[in-house]
Amino acid sequence: MPTDLSTVLRPVSKANGLPNEHYVDDTVFAEERDAILFGTWAGLAVAADVPEPGDAKPIEFLGLPLLLIRDKDGAVRVFQNTCRHRGMILVDAPRKIEGAIRCPYHSWCYSTKGKLVATPHVGGPGMNTHDDMDRDTLGLIEIRSHIWRDVIFVNISGTEAPFENVHADLIDRWSEFDGPLYHGGADSKFELAVNTNYKLAVENYCESYHLPWVHPGLNSYSRLEDHYNIEEPGKFSGQGTLVYRQLKGDDGQVFPDFPNLRDFWDEGAEYISAYPNVLLGAQRDHAFAIVLEPKSTQETVEHIHLYYAQPEVDAAMRAKNTEQWKQVFEEDIFVVEGMQRGRHGPGFDGGRFSPAMDGPTHCFHAWVAERVVKHRQQLAAE
């Protein structure tokens, strides 16, 4: 039986959270995969993962074999990592593509733009063409993708509205940051493997309610009362602070600011969840993106990347900044893992929301519920 989501869709003061099955049941996880992670614009990776033309990185996204590649002209593309001949995986480890993408099975070759360019012996020994093998129709299957703030979003189903339409309000909200973002490099990225459903990481990130108890160091200067909720029902949610404190080096140096920012950003910062699985941070002098990789109902890998306003910033400060954020994000692990274990309690009814403090989290629950209900209606109509 499908889960009852009617109580999730109530106003925040009367709503319950998503039922337990949405965190622990494999059948419901598969339903959410199709309705949400494949049906909307989900985060896959970052463009910095393939910095140079020819760079290729295989990614398995919920069982779907994908190939992230920067083509010879510098455009980032996402293909199914599957040869159109017999379905062989084309690239099994990150590497530089020199010339063409060559299938290791029968040596069919594809350009970095996905075009089938060589089919050796396809017509018999020494005959590399065949009248019934139309190369123009046998290129790699390209996955619809869009890059914003260096995050590569994909719409696996191909049915969602254009990214610019879906996230128009969020793009406008942070339009001041439309200039280049420069990835900090190898010391500005890390991964956290967490035993939790990816949605709990989103929920926790959305709200500041937990700061005094989970992040005492951060709360010592960025207090609960200095934060505000960001709630855009059906779109995105998160939190902001009015007392962002810049990191300073031993001699008082700071990271360079992004240009042309209004006064708010002198001490303000915002942290927003771009549904379903991307967490973004914007500050005057650096930014970050967290792409949540759902591995199963109860396993998630968090891919964290830090960005700056200039391509070169102080290396010692950059490393310190990464370490500080890693400490903050690690402080959340026991919370999201504890909530995951708690979802196995059969008497838990999804919980209630504080109307004053939990609005951003309820926005996310309602968005998930709306997408799942819509998916069910579409299946019923078919």
Kindly summarize this structure in a few lines:
With 382 residues, the chain is α+β, with helices and mostly antiparallel strands.
Q: Could you characterize the architecture of this molecule?
A:
24% of the residues lie in helices and 25% in strands. It has 382 residues and is α+β, with helices and mostly antiparallel strands. The strands form four sheets. Strands 11, 12, 13, 14, 15, 16, 17 and 18 form an eight-stranded antiparallel sheet that branches. The chain has a four-stranded antiparallel sheet with strand order 4-3-2-5, with no helix packed on it. A three-stranded antiparallel sheet has the order 1-10-9, with no helix packed on it. The longest helix is centred in the C-terminal third of the chain and has 23 residues, at 359-381.
Class derived from helix and strand content: alpha+beta
Rg of Cα set: 23 Å
Order of helices and strands: HHEEEEEEEEEEHHEEHHHEEEEEEHHH
**Largest β-sheet summary:** 8 strands, antiparallel
Mean pLDDT: 95
The number of strands is 18
